[in-house]
Amino acid sequence: MQFRMPRIIAALLALMLTAVPAMAGQVSISAAASLKEAINEMADKFTATHAGTTIVKNFGASGALAGQIENGAPSDIFISASTEWIDYLLNKKMLDAKSRKNFAYNALVFAGATTKKVSGMSDLTKLDRIAIGSPKSVPAGEYAMESMKNSGLDKKLAAKLVMAKDVRECLTYAEMGEVDGSFVYRTDAMQAKKAKIRFVVPEKLHARVVYPMALTVSGAGNADAKAFFAWIQGGEAKSILKKYGFILK
């Protein structure tokens, strides 16, 4: 026997459904590990004035994040710590090319808690263990390797290198004294409690540390993602970046 809903009940249900306001959407952002504190604060500021919007954050090595996006992980916005991984996903047609922007810049430093005197690249030969992010997926590691090579130190330091999964793990090694020091970004070293900046790596030794960003193809169709993407390019977001030591130009 087929059940038939009384017309008045059906009409009431339809009215109730159309009266329910549409829920604001979810925004998924994949960002380089060094941006964690800044992006967390930006997300909190944005959601405070955009009721119902949820920002889902995923931090890690830029290469690892690009691999996740390539393999179908949900992401509306991608912020890399180098142009390499943005270009990689653009070539894969996984990013909205028109949305590409430079988000911020940074400086590469050597930081550590060692008591040994370290004030420049040449002093690294005196050390026993040096941490860098794995150059295959961590831009900070690529910048570090480039700097060592251009200083003529890559072969001398090769046996001393300890690989880390991302720049934050590098800093942890230095903080815990597991290495004499680590190549990290200045903004990461500013978060350290024990490790101190020993020297800033001359920018002439490596490509400029830049954070390019873009909407993914799916993000370009997400109104909430587009709104957050626009917001993080605004004045309030820039103030947050400056607070954490990022360079804007």
From TrEMBL:
SUPFAM superfamilies in alphabetical order: Periplasmic binding protein-like II
Protein name listed in UniProt: Molybdate ABC transporter substrate-binding protein
Residues annotated for molybdate binding in this entry: 34, 62, 140, 167, 185
Superkingdom classification of source: Bacteria
Entry-linked PANTHER family: MOLYBDATE-BINDING PERIPLASMIC PROTEIN, SULFATE-BINDING PROTEIN
Gene Ontology molecular function terms on file: metal ion binding; molybdate ion binding; tungstate binding
A Pfam match: SBP_bac_11
Cited InterPro entries: ModA, ModA/WtpA
Organism encoding this protein: Chlorobaculum thiosulfatiphilum
Gene for this chain: modA
Residues spanning the signal sequence: 1-24
UniProt keyword terms in alphabetical order: Metal-binding, Molybdenum, Signal
Similarity remark: Belongs to the bacterial solute-binding protein ModA family.
Subunit (UniProt): The complex is composed of two ATP-binding proteins (ModC), two transmembrane proteins (ModB) and a solute-binding protein (ModA).
A Gene Ontology BP annotation from the UniProt entry: molybdate ion transport
